[in-house]
Structure formats: C-alpha cells, structure tokens
Amino acid sequence: MTTIPENLFADLLENTVTKLLKEKLELLLREEIKNYMTVEQPLERNSLNGSYTRSFQTRYGTINELQVPRDRKGTFQTRLFRPYQRREGWLEEAIIHMYKGGMSTREVAKFIDSMFGSQYSPTTISNITNTVMEDIADWQKRPLEQRYSVIYLDGLYVKLKRNTVSSEVVYLVMGIDEKGYRQILGFYVGGHESSNGWVEVLKNLQNRGATDVLLGVFDGLPGLEEAFRKIYPKADVQHCVVHKVRATFPKVRVSDKTEFLDDLKQVYTAIDGDVAQAVFDGFKAKWSKRYPKEVNSWEEQLPTLFTFYQYPSMVREAIYTTNPIERMNKELRKRLKPMNSLTNIESAEKIIYLQVTDYNDKWFGRAIRGFADPDTKATFEKMYIARYGPLKEKQET
C-alpha cells in the first residue's frame, strides 16, 4: 500500500476544497448577475459581456482565475466582495483578535507574513485595527437601560505616550440592571482620576438613559461620593468593605493581625444591620485602646460601609465590595502589562474596548445570582417606585 506524504496530502486537500469553492462561487455569481439583469434592471438596455478573471484569497486557500461575470454598462457589482477586495474579511478579523490577545502590531505583521506570505507592515496592521474605532464611537453612545440596581465605579492606570510617557486613568463603570444582568456600561480614558472626572462620566451615563439608580459601589477616593450624589442624589452609597479592610491591614501589628481581622470580619458578615452594629460595638470595646485611629476610621464610615444591610440578603455579598469590577480591571491589566506604554489614547481604547465587549458577550443574558430572585426583584421594584416613581409613568412623561 502506497502512503501519500503528509504535505502532499494537505496540498491535494487544499486544491480539492478551493476547486469546489471556486465552482460554487462562480455559480453564485452567475445567478446574481442573472437576477440583476432580469429583476433589478428589467427595463434597462443592458446585456451580459462575458467575464473577467481575478484571484481571491479565502481561509481555505487562494482561488486563482475566478470568473466574475460583467455587463456591458459596467453597473453590476457582486455582493460577495467589494470591487478591489482580494481576500475575505477573515484575515482582518484574525488580525484584530491577535491584537486583542496581546500581540503587538509588529508581532502580528511578522506572524501574518510567515503564515500567509502577505506583506503586512505594522502600520497596515494598525490601520486594520483602527476600524475598531468606529465601533467604539457607536458603543460609547449606545442607549442604556433606565433602571440599574447597582453601579460599580473603579479606575485603573495605563501608561500613555504623548510628548512623554505618563500614567493616565481609565474610568470604568459596571452596572446590574433590574433584570439582574451585569455588563460594562462605559469606559473613559485620559487624565488623572478626580471627582470632576467622575462627574463627567456619570453625566454621560445619565444622558444615555441611566436615570434610575438604587446603589453606587466604589472605594473611598476623596470627592467620589460627592460626585456620585451630585448626579444620583436619590441613590444609596456603599463604600467597598474590602478596600477598607486592605487599608486597615498594614496598620495592625503582625501579632494582632489574625485576631483583629477575624473580629472585623464578624462585623460585615453579620445577619443584619442591627447585629452588625452590636458586633462592632464589641469590636470597638476590644480594640480601640490599642488601635484608636483605625477603629475611629471605621466608626466614622459605618453609615456607608453598612448600606448593603438595607438590601436583600441574597445580593449583599455582591454589593458590599467592588470585587466584580476589580476582576475586570485585573483582566485589563494582564492584557496591558506586556506593553511598557501605549503609543496614544486610541491604542488604549482599542484594547480596552475589545476586552470589554468580550466581557459583555460572556455575561449577556445571564442574571447574577440573587438578583433574579422574585423576592429580591419585588423589593427592588418598591425601592425604584419610592425613589423614582413607576417605570411606565416615567416613560410616558
């Protein structure tokens, strides 16, 4: 029995597939021009005028001498590809996915050249990924839901090269709507994190339709609470308990850390707010002499650290911390880490947008545990009505 060499077998298979694909494409082209002549332009004095040949690169191989029919007036244009398109969109899509995966434009160009023999310069790769900028503009203007049970706010820093390299903030907003669906609502790149910056971010959300918000969850950045209440005065504020614990941790002696933090944990895992207050009183009595500043700091912030106790028990674990949005930030940092700095703000936006839309696709239509519970929904509905009025009436006004 004769064995066909593996490389020869691959060539035979590719030739067979491309031959079959060529036949099917030419059949589609003939039917397309036939429909054009008899249905789309039946009254025009026009006729067939043979065909011309061209090559067309597909994911299955290159089709040489593809026969494309034409008419005498030269008005027929196939919908299968653009006039000067020489390959399917698959390669451009692959380039965008490689870029999103962490490869630089130079690395992508080198890979494409080695795999397909296509001469793509880093500039060309960058131009291809620039098509994403149009999608970003549309995405950032898209309408939002009217109601959001929770909005998480957080910022991370990326190094951007303008005249010099400097760290600039990415404002990131995540929301859970009244159906319990979680998604990234927006991101905004540039400058240094500030309360004024957050005001502009929150105004943008409101202008895009997110007018009814029950709760904002974020860390203790000076001025952020004031900025949030300025745009959403009827919403509650939950300061991140995990951030507060992290800020306290370094100030406690090593010998006390385990016991101190175990006692503190009993405060924010209590069955309800009244029990939490009682547990804190015991915590204060035990530790205030040794750590007066740390205990006082917690006591002063208890109103916004205990907000989550006013919400249904099934969602408390999800709302006393910014962990959901921080996990997203972690993925962004992982993607951005290989790059010492990004050449411009558009490069940062492209990378972040591709990661964010992947995240939203992953969570599309998946209700967060606890938020889809009928009792939770009923409680939230009462809260929405008490603060903003019935949804139906609001839409009609």
From TrEMBL:
GO terms for molecular function: DNA binding; transposase activity. Pfam families: Transposase_mut. GO terms for biological process: DNA transposition. It comes from the Bacteria. Keywords: DNA recombination, DNA-binding, Transposable element, Transposition. NCBIfam families: transpos_IS256 (NF033543). Required for the transposition of the insertion element. Belongs to the transposase mutator family. This is Mutator family transposase.
